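Would you mind giving me a polypeptide sequence along with per-residue structure tokens?
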Amino acid sequence: MHTMKIHVITLFPEMFESPLQGGMIGRAIEQGLIVLKTHALREFGLGNYRQVDDAPYGGGSGMVMRPEPIAAAIDAVDAECPGLWRVLMTPQGEVFDQAIAREFAGRTPGLMLIAGRYEGIDERVRALVDQEISIGDYVLSGGELPAMVVIEAVGRLLPGVLGNPESLDEESFAAGMLEYPQYTRPDEFRGMRVPDVLLSGDHGKIREWRAAESRRRTTRRRPDLLERRRS
């Protein structure tokens, strides 16, 4: 059985307790498919007050995370579990997508996720990581929620985590396009009917309909995905 090890360096390890206890990720942790461990960055802080941040050189608002505590935490995690792929969660990183999730799912022994806070991190920390990841073009208070997004997206790709692994091939972004529309009972709801083809039992026509609808929906909502497929 393959076990994915995920270590998270964060100022707020308690944030990871409740959100990851439920659902398929919680079950995967219980089954030993994922080993998740958080490391409190404050424990590596400087001086009696465990300082982890300081005023930015050159002036400006807010505080910047100092490099020494982060470097010490990275070294400690690396000594405990060598070979983890080091990922810094930062707005300056490449945008996380399904292709990166698949790549991360294949990393052995696993991932080290580093969650920043405050106005940013000292630039020199970037030299200590393997990759920088963002989950989108908006502002959050820190890298904890993005790290959870990565854990969820990567975890569900691991063997044994999903009850029906074939569903991974049909989901949005699995083939670089949005998923086709889904329906279930009843056949009619508030005047809206399920397309006849889905009730026909003709699996060939159903596959054709789903492929056409996937392309139509992607063209209308996310034409950038089609452009990526062409490039």
Q: What stands out?
A: The beta strands are 4-10, 34-40, 53-54, 64-65, 85-95, 110-115, 120-121, 131-134, 188-189, 192-193. The longest strand covers residues 85-95. The chain has a mean pLDDT of 93.
